[in-house]
User: Fold YugN-like family protein from Paenibacillus agaridevorans.
Amino acid sequence: MIIENSGLNGVQSELHHLDDAAEKVGFVRWQWEYYRATYDLKLTDRASGSDYFLRINTRAIEGKLENPHAVLNIEAVYIGRSTFPHGMEYESPVPKHIMDTATQRLDQLKKQLL
Assistant:
């Protein structure tokens, strides 16, 4: 599910600042290549045992990700349920308490970046 109202789409930040801010909120930069990075936050629904990942896609608009001063643009924010062994499912409903936590973390990240 794409989260349209995160307030983060289009936000730009230097890589080192985004890495620091994301880490403070609990995100980890997992997938990355020279011009693109994905930040993930794992949220577990204890009632069902399902894991959800809040994911932020970014793209370098200045420099490459090897450089801490590269400027990244946040392109999309979305959440999905993890499927075994390595997939993500974005169509199923997300429990309210998971969405509430996701929204809180996105707000915390936005405060760090703006």
In short: The mean pLDDT is 93. Strands lie at 12-14, 28-32, 36-45, 50-62, 71-83, 87-89. The longest helix spans residues 96-113.
